[in-house]
Amino acid sequence: MATAKTDRRQRLKYHIRKKVHGTADRPRLSVFRSNTNIYAQVIDDETGVTLVSASSLDLGEKKWNTNIEAAALVGKKIAEKAVEAGVSAVVFDRNGYLYHGKVKALAEAAREGGLKF
C-alpha cells in the first residue's frame, strides 16, 4: 500500500503532466529525486525519446556535503549535454516535487548552463 506522501506526489504529477508536454522544439526536462540521488532527463514526448540524461551517479564517487551541491552539478551537466544535442529551450517538469531545495538548485543550475525555461 502506498503512503500518503507518494499518493500526494502522484496526484500532483498527473495535474502537472496534463499541462506540460515536450515537443521537438521544446522538450521536457523531467526531474526525479530519490532519497540518495537526483536524476534529470530531456524528453521529446511526441516521439517518446529521451534525448539526454544526467544523474548524481554520473558525477563519480565523491561524497557530497549536501545533496543540493550534487543537484546543482547535475543541472549544469544536463544543460551542457542538452546544448551539445542542440536543445536550447525546454519545459520544466518538477514531477510533483515542491520547487525548493534540490529541485530548485537543479533548475537554477540548468538555467545558468544555457537552458531557457
Question: In words, what does this structure look like?
Answer:
38% of the residues lie in helices and 20% in strands. It is of the alpha+beta class. The protein has one domain: 2-Layer Sandwich (Nucleotidyltransferase, domain 5), CATH 3.30.420.100. A 4-stranded mixed β-sheet has the order 3-2-1-4. Strand 1 (28-33) and strand 2 (38-44) form a beta hairpin. Helix 2 packs parallel to helix 3. 31% of the residues are buried. The model has no long low-confidence stretch (mean pLDDT 91). It comes from Arundinibacter roseus. One of its GO terms (molecular function) is 5S rRNA binding.
Question: Helix fraction?
Answer: 25-40%
Radius of gyration: 14 Å
Summarize model confidence as the mean pLDDT: 91
Distance between the termini: 36 Å
Give the number of domains: 1
Shape: globular
Q: How would you characterize the largest beta sheet?
A: 4 strands, mixed
CATH second-level architecture:
2-Layer Sandwich
- List the strand order in the largest sheet: 3-2-1-4
Structural class: alpha+beta
Give the low-confidence spans: none
Number of helices: 3
> Which H/E pattern describes the elements?
HEEEHEH
Report the portion of residues in β strands.
15-25%
What is the CATH topology descriptor? Nucleotidyltransferase, domain 5
Q: For this structure, what is the CATH class? A: Alpha Beta
* Secondary structure: number of strands: 4
List the helices and strands and how they pair.
Layout lengths: L3 H16 L8 E6 L4 E7 L4 E7 L11 H18 L6 E3 L8 H11 L5
Parallel strand pairs: 1-4
Antiparallel strand pairs: 1-2, 2-3
Helix pairs in contact: 2-3
